[in-house]
Amino acid sequence: MTVAMRPPASACPACAAAPAAEALADAAVPQDVNIVLSLPSIHCAACISGVERSLAATDGVKGARVNLTLKRAQIEAGSDVTADDLIRVLENAGYEAHELDSTALRATETDKAGRDLLMRLAVSGFAMMNIMLLSVAVWSGADGQTRDMFHWISAAIALPTIGFSAQPFFKHAWTALRAGRLNMDVPISLAIALAVATSLWETSLSGEHAYFDAAITLTFFLLAGRYLDHRTRAAARSAAEELAALEVPRVWRVRDNGEEQIAMSELVVGDLIRVRPGGRMPVDGEIVGGKSELDRSLLTGETRPICAGVGTTVSAGEVNLTGPLTIRASAVGRDTSLHRMADLVAVAESGRSRYTSLADKAAKLYAPGVHILSALAFAGWYIYTFDLRTALNIAAAVLIITCPCALGLAVPAVTTAASGRLFRKGLLIKDSTALERMAQVDTVVFDKTGTLTAGTPEVVNLGDHSRRDLGITLALAEGSSHPLSQSLAGAIRDAGISPAKLTDITEVPGHGTEGSWMGQVVRLGRASWVGDGDSAETCAWLRVGDLVADPFRFADQIRDGAEVLVSQLQQNGYDVILMSGDTTPAVEAFADRLEIARWIAEALPEDKAARVAQLTESGKKVLMVGDGLNDTAALAGAHASISPASALDAARVASDVVLLGNSLDPIADALATSRVAIKRIRQNFTIATWYNIIAVPLAVAGLCSPLIAALAMSSSSITVSLNALRLK
């Protein structure tokens, strides 16, 4: 039986005094459950409405919301509704669904950093507008006490605003200084602090100029750049956590007195587990009872389901297709193959995170030079004039005019413009450095099943069969959840054929489906079971009575744009490699169809990751394109990576770019756009550099006040942004 435990009650005196009443209330009021489902096949608004409509029509479901970006559904339901019930409802409606562990995903649900940056940006923008209004009055001729009043009002607005809005720069600068290093936030923080300090000093001395507007404008522009940078990577989450969430959170354990549903954490090695048709394997183990077929395509890339019976070993994540199985667990929890794959992904991600972006490289050169220059300007003018006020003004002007804002915007402005362009083409850029890395790619590695192919088998000889046979086949195929049967049933229905009237339809696990038609036994399934034919190809065989069996032949359907993309990449000088977990004959035949000279077959997840690492060590910059769990470690370990939107969550999260549509055409455009984007980024750095070369000597010579420096800084920032917009 299933035991649900209520969380500990709060330390309420009344509750503590009446535990019996609380227990009675618990028994009387059923607790709602929150179920999270992964929906890897949804891709549009129609899918959202279809899923939500199907769930809403299910008894016990109180609410359902679908997130297209995450490809998840959050369902609130009564305690008598299970995830398996909802999965069956969605599969009957034509949507693939898998249960996710909501506890494992809880850490990835909120975007506090993004909301925090946006709030600080809004506060600084509002304050900047108000201070600018006051500054216009000063610039228009206000003097004396009126000018001083406007300056003090500006100070009252600027000080708390900068104290709140500029915190990200101050914190990062302090962290860097404590570690004995410099980053871009150090000169930024110093420029803001000096502008505020100088302005306060000038205001206290009834000076003509205060630079609160310069400080707040600098803060606003830099926060805008920081937020743009954050948005480019907002969709990225930990692939290792997504892999862990794909684990089945609850299982049916077999006992002498029946079955009980327990949490995965309660399983131990040696337990017997019942896995029903359509269920995902929760553990590594061995089949000790039952016969079925297993779909290993997400783990190994094999397109053909394998027949499994007593003695067959299974791995966590495989899907049981046709019959109930009893599994003896040999590895549970962190020891399963699924968790070992998660560990591979974590290692690969940490390796890729060591990539140094262009902005970081610029900061290493820029930060020390700015500080040295500002310090020399301060020292030189103080020695020359012995006027601390003049020296401090010039030092602040140097820090402001050296344009940390333009450099801060150089990368995020371009990546945001490029991301917008590619999004309109059907590509979602998730990582802030993805464009930089894609521009360096010279080798493209493709997975086969689900990437270069549509991931579903396609019947190729439907016209060779009579309408009578097609009607019989449709009636048999509709009674099976086997991928070949589902593909066959869809193709026959599309041809306008109605199912024949069959009786006694029964699915024989591991073999096929049989029934009775006009007193004759009809069978659809494996060649060895039907009794005729050669099973070397991917086929489903139909036998009617004593007649010779006829095959329905299947082939992988090439994804739209795959042939053009491969040809275009080869013409542009990229090395193209096909790497798949499918069988050698299938991979070889497919490589010949697309004219790919280099291919690898029967590759395990570890083999794919190792091959990508080997190419990287040899100096290649690899772009990995894949969709399955078996591709996840390779996607994370490649120099850059792309996965289709139809991929499982784990593969999409491990990749840098998600292909939103069904066609592969945008991948070539992504590579071309990335090269143009890097060109624009370098142009922005050049603009900022030449600006500094021209403006800094003027500031050092004392010809620019901090206010003029702030205006010049804003001009350079606008120039950088306009150059980035050329990408659109």
Largest sheet: 7 strands, mixed
How does the helix and strand content classify structurally?
Answer: alpha+beta
CA radius of gyration is 32 Å
Q: What is the annotated CATH architecture of the largest domain?
A: 3-Layer(aba) Sandwich
Helix fraction?
Answer: 40-55%
Please, how many helices? 28
Number of beta strands: 26
In CATH terms, the superfamily of the largest domain is HAD superfamily/HAD-like
Number of domains: 5
**Mean pLDDT figure:** 78
Q: What spatial form do the alpha-carbon principal axes imply? A: elongated
**CA-to-CA gap between the ends?**
60 Å
Task: Provide keyphrases for this structure.
single chain, 728 residues, alpha+beta, Alpha-Beta Plaits, Calcium-transporting ATPase, cytoplasmic transduction domain A, 5 domains, six-stranded antiparallel beta sheet, elongated, disordered N terminus
Overview of the molecule:
- Helix 6 runs antiparallel to helix 10 (212-232), helix 14 packs antiparallel against helix 15 and helix 27 (666-700) packs antiparallel against helix 28 (706-725).
- This protein folds into five domains: 30-108, Alpha-Beta Plaits (2-Layer Sandwich), CATH 3.30.70; 112-234, no CATH class; 246-335, Calcium-transporting ATPase, cytoplasmic transduction domain A (Distorted Sandwich); 425-454 and 558-675, Rossmann fold (3-Layer(aba) Sandwich); 456-556, Calcium-transporting ATPase, cytoplasmic domain N (3-Layer(aba) Sandwich), CATH 3.40.1110.10.
- A seven-stranded mixed beta sheet has the order 14-26-25-24-15-22-23, with helices on both faces. Strands 6-5-7-13-8-11 form a six-stranded antiparallel beta sheet, with no helix packed on it.
- The protein is built from 28 helices and 26 strands.
- The chain is α+β, with helices and mostly antiparallel strands.
- Helix content is 51%, strand content 18%.
- The protein is elongated, with a radius of gyration of 32 Å.
